[in-house]
Design brief:
Elements: E1 2-10, H1 15-23, E2 29-33, H2 35-44, H3 53-57, E3 63-69, H4 75-90, E4 95-102, H5 104-107, E5 117-118, E6 123-127, E7 139-143, H6 155-167, E8 173-177, H7 183-191, E9 195-200, H8 203-215, E10 222-226, E11 237-243, H9 246-256, E12 260-272, H10 276-285, E13 289-296, E14 299-305
């Protein structure tokens, strides 16, 4: 379906007035991009580690307002009305422009940028819409990301996959907390884990994970739970994977010992570099040992344990 998009650029002080003018023209949708509002949310919520500061800064100090009209709207009539109202209410003509937009731009076009790729030595990630022939003992994970976090392209996921590829030899029990699409749990199953439990509190993530587990034919190995750590079976796992934001990792550390033994490898990712020391301090406070860590861009991943383990050579 097509839409006529009108984009207006203005200062924060005119945001309400411009929005009112556009609403009076019979818009079918309104979108406001206000960098100052984004920055305020980030300042007030330190847990938003995944926010893209570069994207926010790219807007500068201007507010962008997008209004959507029926594609058969008369552009010349709209132009005349807008300029008349801008001049009348603001005393100036603001910068604006029209474009025809199609739903496919945001529904399916993103797929062209998500292609089959190798995430670790033994594992390849393949989107459902691509054909791929694996070679040798290569493990292939087929994904339909949907709305959940976890396509395998993010640094935090890649580092977890690296650790799993090295640690899983076959027969392990794995707990994936904050599983998203289930990519890490499915990787563990494909590499030979005997039993995998994927947990996520988000409904969209739960549904995406269930579908991806079925799609990859690992339903006999992977169990998906909609809930939190406390909703899982109280048992000791060989490997625990947590790829979530730092504040949630900090909240989980005190309870992880109930699910780990001296030989359990705990993989922590989703840690932005600025929060590394917070994690290390908490880890030491609760008696965990840092085995090794990886860094990719501004992200850090750690392999920790509750007791001594041999430090492998990288």
């Amino acid at each position: 379906m097509e839409w006529l998009e009108l984009e207006v650029t203005t200062g924060p002080e005119h945001q309400e007035t411009v929005s009112g003018i556009l609403l009076d023209q019979g818009v079918q949708g309104l979108e406001i991009v206000d960098p100052d509002a984004f920055r305020q949310v980030l300042d007030e919520n330190s847990y938003l580690d995944f926010a893209d500061d570069g994207l926010i800064d790219s807007y500068g100090d201007k507010v962008v307002i997008r209004a959507y009209f029926s594609p058969d709207s008369n552009i010349e009539v709209l132009k005349n009305r807008l300029e008349e109202e801008f001049q009348k209410q603001l005393g100036m003509i603001l910068e604006y422009g029209f474009k025809i937009r199609d739903d496919s731009e945001w529904k399916d076009n993103w797929k062209k940028y998500y292609r089959t790729f190798k995430i670790s030595d033994r594992v390849t990630i393949k989107p459902t819409w691509e054909d791929y022939r694996p070679s040798g003992n290569e493990a292939v994970v087929e994904l339909e990301p949907g709305m959940a976090f976890g396509t395998g392209s993010h640094e935090t996921t890649r580092m977890c996959a690296f650790f799993l590829d090295e640690l899983i030899k076959g027969g392990e029990t794995v707990l994936d907390l904050g599983c998203g699409t289930g990519i890490l749990g499915i990787i563990a199953a494909k590499l030979g884990a005997a039993e995998v439990t994927c947990v996520d509190i988000d409904d969209a993530a739960y549904r995406a994970c269930v579908e991806n587990v079925s799609r990859n034919n690992v339903s006999g190995t992977v169990r998906v739970i909609r809930g939190e750590l406390k909703d899982t079976e109280s048992k000791k796992y060989d490997i625990i994977v947590i790829n979530i934001i730092s504040d949630i990792i900090l909240s989980l550390l005190p309870d992880l010992k109930n699910y780990s033994s001296e030989g359990t490898n705990i993989l922590l990712s989703g840690i932005i570099s600025d929060r590394r020391e917070d994690i290390v301090n908490a880890m030491e406070k609760y008696g965990y040992k840092l085995i090794r860590e990886k860094k990719d861009g501004e992200w850090v991943a750690m392999q920790i344990c509750t007791g001594f383990l041999f430090r492998p050579t990288l």
